[in-house]
């Protein structure tokens, strides 16, 4: 039922769908409505990490090592936590410098070195091409297995002629796809929108396929479906093979650690991950979602690995099916053709995604960092063609074809060999060699070009020796003898137990020695000299990337140049139209009318170089620009001066900003303080004015009557007595006023003497009553007292509290009506306070005046005329009670009179 | 010859002294205890002169003065302002608003009596 033409037809249909998505996304991008400018699409595109090796291979690893397959996903998950720093730096630098690949990135960091870019490219190609072969093999195998449906049969190593080998056909198809969507434009720093959209789509397809098999198998295992799996797991023979799966362990620990580290590095260093994660990102804020969404994707795609492995081992206990094919053979064995087809498509997605992105990323590196430098050497002797852009695009297309063909050839000849089967992690170790130069370069300013070159070379050589050669030897291509005893019988140099390090997994062993050699050489050689001018500038740019939103290198260039020559050169690569547009935008940004008006200064040269970088890589761009300008060498000291100046200006402006902020705050505080002072000043003026007014009033009476009595001796006696009485009372009023003003001033300023002691409020009441008795009796007012039988102890100044009480009583006496007047004193306990009220049956106090009566010189009228008193009694009382930790207030009892109360804390508190 | 004098002040003792002084000069004296009562008394009794305090409850002296001066029927009324606020600004304000004389408290009884005489002489 699943015939070969059917599978081919479905595959072609699927690839056409990818074409259609890519084409649609590219068209949308051309019209400025990007479909990939979305954080979820970005996170999905990162899942190009999950290749056919993941799709089929995770189950295979699980059957061997139990949960030993997990570190490959734990590493990236942990690394994702660092993306906020590492990836953000990489993205910012790459956008501002128009970085096109990881080779370009590393070369740019160490002064735009062509040699370094070339070396990185070489390592990447050698390390990754076999990995591409693995994908081709996966597609070819899955095709063959599916073709056998409904039988479960492992394919045999083919020796088919080229045109009958389906892997070759797949290779050609993928090459066409990669060429079409990877080389539409020369500027590799611009995004390949169509490709990203297609990859994101593929990530969904492979996840769906994996989850479908996982659910099918798991539900079967649980006995929910009718797959019959539940019976199989009880078979006694199977128990042994299931051992590692049913007893998960993280030993040996060093392998877990090594593979976690390896995978964590691979997620940022693999050329395809760099392409997707750094070059293709449209907005750095997308990183935020990827930090959790990508690990979630990894979790989902690993969710069912163990159940599938258990089911596979149960069903094929004697190894009828390779564990790597369980994904496909299980659905076939359970006669689920559609599920099998879905798995095939999922695997195809995983493989094609990897192959396309990897080949595009590698082709950019090969064309910019291997081929172009060679061509440039050639052009010194021969005139280069006019349209370099087209030439380079063709180089890139050729590189894609070449890389895929290399991948195919390796697959064709390595076939079943160990060298192909085990290539996944070996490939990871190769790209891990980029880590010291790249990550070190992001955080350490001391690295030099030679250091990076030495580190990479050392690590790469050790990788070849400890991992690549042994894998060749196991494949039977090299004598195996040297693996055990080392070359020339030197045991100490045995590739799998270097310097006597035995008992480690070969990957762990190789990673340890290659990274040790790499880091050691990088640090040692870097320490031989100080970074030069170019390295120092780039170090600042990379290390300080997070300090600026758009890191830009200070224009460190001096020499003579002609804008015409620069544009002419750019036009040869980018085309006339694009170059002119770019230069016009740049001129506008600098405030010039047109690009003709641009000065040939450092900024312009630097712009031209960056513009060119996007097309041919930073190191080639630097050489190209140097060929049309005459640059004077800047010494390190000069470079440092310029850089220091730039950073000083930044620091100054930052400092200034902080200072002006502080100034603003201080001004605000001063303004508030000034307002407060003005207010206080006004209050003081008001008080003085009130005091003088209050003093002058009794003084007027005193003067008037004194003069009257003095001038006129004939005034009758009774009238004379009346006048003298007024004189006496006004003098008393005057002295009372003076005393109270002084008293108030003292209390307010905190200079008053307080003779505090424990005292009984009942005594205070008695003494105050005694002092006011006469006044009250004269006016015929009845006084009632309600005091407790026991002592009412408080902490306070006796004289002052008597003063308060006298004020309240004379106040009440003033307002209570004559004859029918009534004053009631009530002293009572209330929780931890003593509560004292003086009530009168006078006119009461209006609601709005309840607080005003405590203001200075605020007197309410009694029956239309001005009351006797100073207007300071209640304000002073309030000061006293407040000082003693109590409070005083007025209450109105509508229709009954006023109530003035205060309360003071009991003392000691527990009585 | 007897004139009618209105005293507007809220200080009882000052009123007593003023009343005594004016009566001793042979004038007819009316008393009001606040601004509103003062204004009402001007309208009913049409005094020849009023002695007007500034700081008073209900309606202050300036408001009373303004009301009196804006009423043409009361245009003959002489106004002597008395105030405990002896600042220049107050004094100028009172004169600007149409007071005929302005004396600060505490005042000299002799000067007051002479000033009253002077103002009453102008009426004739």
The count of strands of chain A amounts to 9
CATH class identity of chain B: Alpha Beta
What's the domain count of chain B? 1
Mean pLDDT of chain A: 82
How are the strands of the biggest sheet of chain A laid out side by side?
4-6-7-9-8
**What level of helicity do the residues of chain B show?**
40-55%
Q: Name the CATH homologous superfamily of chain B.
A: Response regulator
N-to-C terminal Cα separation of chain B, in Å? 11 Å
Q: State the separation between the terminal residues of chain A, measured CA to CA.
A: 101 Å
State the CATH topology of chain B: Rossmann fold
Listing every helix as H and every strand as E from the N terminus to the C terminus, the arrangement of chain B reads: EHEHEHEHEH
Approximate helicity band of chain A:
55-70%
Any idea of the CATH topology of the largest domain in chain A? Sodium/glucose cotransporter
Structural class of chain B: alpha/beta
Please, how many helices of chain A?
35
Total DSSP E strands of chain B: 5
Multimer state: heterodimer
Number of helices of chain B: 5
**Biggest sheet architecture of chain A:** 5 strands, mixed
What would the average pLDDT of chain B be, to the nearest integer? 87
